Amino acid sequence: MSTDSPALLRDRYGRPARPRRLGPRGWLGLLVLATLLAAGFIVWVVTARAAAPTFKDVGFQVVSEARVTADFDLTKRPGDVVTCAVSALNEEYAVVGWAEVTVGAVAEEQLGEGGTSTHRATVRTTNLATTAVVDSCWVEDGEAAADVS
Questions:
Q1: Beta-strand runs (E) in the chain
Q2: Looking at residue 10, what is its pLDDT?
Q3: Where are the membrane-spanning stretches (predicted)?
Q4: Which of 9-18, 69-78, 92-101 has the lowest mean pLDDT?
Q5: Could you tell me the pTM of the whole model?
Q6: For a designed S-S bond to 132, which of 12, 60, 66, 109 qualifies (C-beta 3.0 to 4.6 A apart)?
């Protein structure tokens, strides 16, 4: 009698483990989980974009060799304090001036259609600027900021 018989080994150690396969309920659960994760990500992206301020360059004026002004429209929520970076550029599109303009919380009645307000920023330059544009805008964490018009 052999001690290596399959029946003896099975009796002593049990049946070998079968590889587990995902049944229809498992696949359905994974599909539901993936759908919920995708929906949560979409909601997060949409709400983050809705809170972000938007801007539009309206115009600029070269005041002198050392100064330029930039006019821009800013759309934001009334209670937000927003800082916008304005850059002055020369003929080669090199930055010759930079300023940060902070726009404080504004009463809703003072904002135009869709929460838009118009602002003018003055930028000191190192050389003659040929244009001035808003580079970016972001919502500040703090509330202590002056209103710029």
A1: 54-64, 67-75, 82-89, 95-103, 116-124, 131-139
A2: 79
A3: 26-46
A4: 9-18
A5: 0.63
A6: 60
121 near 63, Cβ under 8 Å? no
> pLDDT tens digits, residue range 55-71?
999 999 999 999 999 99
Measured CA distances, 52 to 31, 80, 133 (Å): 32, 10, 19
Tokens of 93: 């599109």
Half-sphere exposure of 48 (CA within 13 A, CB side): 6
Tokens linked to 30:
């994974």
Mean pLDDT of the chain: 85
Residue 113, both tokens: 């259609």
Domain 54-139 in CATH 2.60.40: yes
Within the chain, where are the H helices? 6-13, 24-51
pLDDT-based confidence at 19, cuts 50/70/90?
confident
Calpha distance 40→48 (Å, rounded): 12
For residues 143 and 77, give the distance between their C-alpha atoms in angstroms, rounded to a whole number.
13
